[in-house]
């Protein structure tokens, strides 16, 4: 299973995950499996084109267009925000087609033309993964170049050579796309100040959700993705001892969400209000059009899509409802109150 990608080594039950994805009936889950298989077929071409891309990036001149980086806790609504903004803003984005070329993301993707202007047809996803070649992708295949292969931790320092390589890559991409770039990657929440220093045109859009429902959703994700609640899943997660009681797992996830929240609070203070804006998942669900307009107003050089009908985006059910036994919800609330 690990041959499908180094990141799969971080999944504790990959064969069980495969089975659950197949049986889920979720189109996005099945799409991920097909995409993984396609990436194997694309590897020889990706390796060949990678050498070409490296040479091209070395000659890239600065392009001053904004990079809009969506950050937040996993299960807080980052993927939905990504999809909504792709629908409403005139921006470029990493798509699933480009993910077939981790070594030659731009060169390989450019074989198929510029990013489509067609809006995504669905707002569904499977734990951050979307269905369709033109659908937005979180871009691990890009960010891993500088931040490492671990999906739940990011490097905390970049050498000057790494930072310069990052700047050249994005300059090359922005010149090719001819418009601002939008991307969502939860792991970037682990290193916002570092990215802000390296990328002067980057702005950060954080989305948050009522903490008890983030914790609940992460607990459910541990079981569905990792097979057992003891195994960590998502940014800043920590495992608990095998056989530990349910309360211990609940506490671990509460600590996880609190660490992310505090990290983002520090990042917002360090980056400053002109480059960091905060949104609420509940507001996104109730009035997505207003969220699109607020981001367009906040980010310089970003415009609404001319063909976007913001009134037809959403609203979405917020899914802020108990899905765990009552005693577990009480435990989450009590532990969160104690941490605040």
Report on the architecture of this protein.
There is one protein chain. The protein has about 350 residues and is an alpha/beta fold. It has one domain. The chain has 12 helices and 5 strands. It has helices at about 15-25, 25-60, 80-90, 105-110, 140-145, 160-175, 190-200, 210-225, 245-270, 280-285, 290-300, 325-340; strands spanning about 65-70, 90-95, 180-185, 200-210, 275-280. The protein has a 5-stranded parallel β-sheet, sandwiched between helices. Helix 8 (about 210-225) crosses helix 12 (about 325-340). The chain is globular, with a radius of gyration of 19 Å. It starts with 13 loop residues before the first helix and ends with a helix. Residues about 1-5 have low confidence and may be disordered.
